[in-house]
Specification:
Length: 189
């Protein structure tokens, strides 16, 4: 059985739309950023989540992921309030940033880890646009204070790389690694 160690509705939607059957058991642990480079930090956080769920589900395949946004050398997590969201979106306005999603897949003593990296460029945003977007409520459960798949799509000028990585899961690469663990999507033909 495949377990997604995440409560992210975006990750759940991506896996479902690709045809995977899975159970959701979100990791409860605190998402602490270790003092590592951003790629390693994202993978390490995903690993901690996977190991937490694997303790109680040793016979299952655990899929965990963590997404971070890096802008100007700063790691932007999930905003804690409106002012924090405004600060993040203002920093992203008119600039390019990097979205990194670390993935850790585990079954027993076998594990695989990798990360996706996507470059995202924002339009120049007015204070009114930023404030209006914050009022939608979208920024508060997302690294970097935006979701590309919803209203936040209007903030984005362009991307280089995997769109699904920005949503929270580099889906094609994840599918390749899940296949190594014997997990295939169930497509109806």
């Amino acid at each position: 059985m495949l377990i997604l160690a995440s409560n992210s509705p975006r990750r759940q939607k991506l896996l479902k739309s690709a045809g995977y059957k899975f159970k959701v058991i979100p990791a409860e642990g605190e998402e602490m950023l270790p003092p590592l480079n951003p790629e390693r930090a994202a993978v390490e956080i995903a690993k901690v989540k996977a190991l937490e769920i694997a303790e109680k589900n040793p016979d299952c395949i655990i899929l965990a992921a963590d997404t971070i946004v890096v802008s100007g050398g700063e790691i932007l997590g999930k905003p804690v309030n409106c002012d924090d969201a405004f600060r993040m979106l203002k920093a992203l306005s008119g600039a390019r940033h990097t979205v990194i999603t670390g993935v850790f897949i585990l079954k027993g003593v076998s594990s695989r880890s990798f990360f996706g990296r996507t470059s995202v460029e924002f339009h120049v945003l007015s204070d009114y646009e930023i404030t209006s977007y914050i009022k939608t409520g979208e920024p508060f459960d997302k690294a970097g204070a935006y979701g590309i798949q919803e209203k936040g799509a209007l903030l984005v000028k362009g991307i280089r790389g995997d769109y699904f990585n920005v949503m929270g899961l580099p889906l094609a690469r994840t599918a390749i690694v899940l296949r190594e663990f014997g997990v295939l999507p169930e497509w109806k033909i």
